[in-house]
């Protein structure tokens, strides 16, 4: 279960059942999925424009009219694909979260010695890489939780990540049966809060705080580790 395909299978399977998927608007309307290349480019252009505006103005100041203008598209075109501003924000968050899932999977695939410690550090380190590449994601996901839709998305994603990493750790033989999903969810929520604090005012993130978070998370989860989870499994 240590290769990237296995991890991505684990992390993305529950997403289909998530009530607020990227193909559903805030009001529950089904989003039109672009089929043609031209339409896909238009949607990507809208998302890229929204990302720029989020960095410049913040989440709360964003409007659909401003997004359409920045993308050089009529407002009506935006509403062909997105129900409202929250729908655009969730699509942006989902796009970057998919990139994060891929980054975690790729980095896990390079681990030579798999342990609880290396799993925690690799996962959190992958998050940092994406935060550096995607400053709008920092604004939306780490600083935009006053928005109800973004807050809900964050909690749902944390639960999905916790379940995926829990399954990964159990299947890899890193954790004893005493490790519960509730413990994994608490660990992910604490790690999420560490990132919120680290990026609260620093666009580059307070890496000393991130490092402390890694140490704290590792110590907490090692309480449930098998001998192999503590010593490491050579892959």
TrEMBL record:
DNA-binding region(s) in UniProt: 63-82
Superkingdom of origin organism: Bacteria
Keyword terms, alphabetized: DNA-binding
Occurrences of domain HTH tetR-type (ranges): 40-100
Annotated stretches, region: Disordered: 18-39
InterPro entries tied to this protein: Homeodomain-like_sf, HTH-type_TetR-like_transc_reg, HTH_TetR, TetR_C_15
Alphabetical list of SUPFAM superfamilies matching this protein: Homeodomain-like
Pfam families, sorted: TetR_C_15, TetR_N
Keyword DNA-binding: yes
UniProt xrefs under PANTHER family: HTH-TYPE TRANSCRIPTIONAL REGULATOR PKSA, HTH-TYPE TRANSCRIPTIONAL REGULATOR RUTR
Protein's UniProt name: TetR family transcriptional regulator
Source organism (scientific name): Nocardioides aquiterrae
């Amino acid at each position: 279960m240590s290769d990237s395909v296995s991890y991505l299978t684990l992390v993305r399977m529950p997403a289909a059942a998530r009530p607020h998927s990227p193909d559903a608007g805030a009001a529950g309307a089904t989003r039109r999925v672009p089929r043609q290349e031209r339409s896909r480019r238009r949607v990507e252009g809208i998302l890229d424009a929204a990302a720029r505006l989020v960095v410049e103005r913040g989440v709360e100041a964003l409007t659909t009219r401003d997004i359409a203008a920045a993308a050089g598209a009529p407002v009506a075109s935006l509403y062909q694909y997105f129900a409202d501003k929250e729908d655009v924000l969730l699509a942006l968050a989902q796009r970057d979260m998919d990139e994060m899932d891929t980054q975690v999977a790729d980095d896990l695939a390079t681990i030579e010695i798999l342990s609880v410690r290396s799993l925690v550090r690799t996962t959190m380190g992958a998050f940092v890489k994406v935060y550096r590449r995607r400053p709008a994601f920092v604004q939306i996901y780490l600083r935009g939780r006053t928005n109800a839709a973004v807050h809900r998305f964050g909690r749902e994603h944390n639960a999905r990540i916790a379940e995926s990493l829990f399954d990964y750790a159990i299947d890899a033989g890193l954790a004893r049966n005493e490790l519960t999903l509730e413990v994994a969810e608490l660990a992910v929520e604490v790690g999420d809060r560490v990132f919120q604090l680290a990026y609260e005012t620093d666009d580059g993130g307070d890496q000393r705080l991130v490092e402390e978070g890694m140490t704290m998370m590792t110590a907490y989860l090692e309480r449930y580790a098998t001998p192999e989870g503590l010593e490491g499994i050579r892959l």
